[in-house]
Amino acid sequence: MTDRVEGRPLEDVGFARLDDVELVGRARDGDVSAYGELVERYREVAFRTAWLITRSSADADDAAQEAFVKAFYALGRFRVGEAFRPWILRIVSNEAKNRRRSTGRRERLTVRLAQDRGSGDAAPSPETAALGHEQREALLHAIDGLPERERLVVTYRYLLELSEAETARALGIRPGTVKSRLSRGLARLRQALATEGRDDG
Amino acid sequence: MADRTPTDGQLASALTALGRDVAFPQAPMLTSAVTARLSAERARGARPRVPGLALIGRRRALVLVAAGLLALLALAGATRLAIGAFEVRVQPQATPPPSLPPVEPSRIGDAVSEREAVAQAGFEPALPPGPAPDEVYVIDTDFGDAGILYAWRPSAAYPRIEGTDWGLMLIVAQGDQEFVSKSVDRFDALVEVKVNGDRAFWIPAPHEVSITTDQGSETFSVTGNVLIWQEGDLSYRLETSLGRAEAIALAESAS
Question: What are the chain B neighbours of A159 within 8 Å (beta carbons)?
Answer without folding.
Answer: 15, 18-19, 22
